[in-house]
Design goal:
By secondary structure, this protein is α/β, with parallel strands linked by helices. The chain contains ten helices and 13 strands. The chain has a single domain, classed as Ribonuclease Z/Hydroxyacylglutathione hydrolase-like (Metallo-beta-lactamase, Chain A), CATH 3.60.15.10. Helix 2 links the parallel strand 3 and strand 4. Bound molecules: ligand HKS and zinc ion (2 copies).
């Protein structure tokens, strides 16, 4: 299995257009060592030729243009190597890129019933895109049975949804009471090698289901949004804790570092990293601490083979 990290940032990316935090202004003025990051998306492939896009970020056009493996094959007038799309939630940072794909529709889109509901009501991307060549072809992900599914182009890969605790977007009917399916992680298994990827860009709780995935996984791409639960409050950017926004902090008690290190996982990688997270500064204490804990920071263009 080949995994491409197309965008390693959280919503807003790094630097975020309106933000003057230490990381955003430091990058703009070249005063710190930190990589710019586009918004959250990955692609996976069984054979290196057919790709499944997992989450479609507002930066998708730039991400495809910077990734030769996703360029159209030679010899076709117009086309794409993206055979299907899988969504983990209905957040703007994970779905707006569907608009970017309009010239190349129809394409199959796999999502849960409640994500489909959000994307046909509060943020009606499916309705809008019907007007482009047949639009987005919806395929259901069943979280009741966690049954495996096979997105078009998956080849030797099987996908399982993993119900996660996180939150729902402001335009969702489920904003204040989430149900199973508002957020899923993905367990992706290579049938040939038996290797398992667990992808969870938004996860607030180390539930039994999450722990079970961490036991099985050879590689985990996990929610690295905030370093500290009160990071947004301490910076004066928000009145909400990370856990109130659906994201487990990276550091501290109950944080992702401690959780990940309870398991024997070959590669532990943080993804969906917010611009305010001090770990993005490559000369920071936090960055050194993460490395000392054997956890990697995803960056745009990173490739993982499993
Ligand atoms: C900033 C944002 C922070 C951010 C928050 C969340 C809350 C949200 C909601 C997130 C993300 C980035 N970049 N989605 O102000 O610094 O209110 O529903 O998912 O990507 S969580
Ligand atoms: Zn997000
Ligand atoms: Zn910032």
């Amino acid at each position: 299995m080949q995994i491409l990290i197309l965008g390693s940032g959280a919503g807003g990316g790094v630097p975020q257009w309106n933000c003057h935090c230490h990381i955003c202004s430091g990058i703009r003025h070249d005063e710190i060592v930190a990589k710019p990051r586009t918004q959250s998306s990955i692609a996976v492939s069984s054979n290196g030729e057919d790709w499944i896009l997992i989450n479609a970020s507002p930066d998708l056009r730039q991400q495809i243009n910077e990734t030769p493996k996703l360029w159209p094959e030679k010899g076709v007038k117009r086309g794409t190597r993206i055979r299907s799309i899988v969504l983990t939630d209905s957040q703007i940072d994970h779905t707006t890129g569907l608009l970017t794909l309009r010239e190349g529709l129809p394409l199959p889109v796999h999502c849960t019933d409640v994500v489909y509901e959000d994307l046909t009501t509060g943020f009606p991307l499916f309705n809008m895109l019907k007007h482009w060549h047949g639009g987005l072809q919806r395929r259901a992900i069943d979280t009741d049975h966690e049954s495996e599914f096979f997105p078009e182009g998956a080849g030797d890969l099987t996908f399982n949804p993993v119900v996660l605790e996180s939150n729902a977007p402001p335009y969702s009917k489920y904003r204040d009471n989430i149900v199973p399916g508002n957020n899923i992680g993905l367990k992706i298994t290579n049938k040939v090698t038996g290797k398992v990827l667990f992808y969870a860009p938004g996860c607030m709780q180390a539930s039994d289901l999450v722990k079970d995935m961490l036991k099985q996984a050879d590689c985990v791409l996990f929610d690295g949004t905030l370093w500290l639960d009160d990071e947004m409050i301490a910076n004066g950017f928000s009145e909400r804790l990370g856990t109130q926004m659906g994201h487990m902090p990276v550091n501290g008690d109950g944080g992702a570092i401690d959780m990940l290190n309870e398991y024997d996982i070959n590669r532990k990688v943080l993804i969906h990293i917010n611009n305010t997270n001090p770990v993005l500064n490559e000369n920071s204490e936090e960055n050194a601490y993460l490395q000392s804990k054997d956890i990697e920071l995803a960056y745009d263009g990173m490739e993982i083979n499993l």
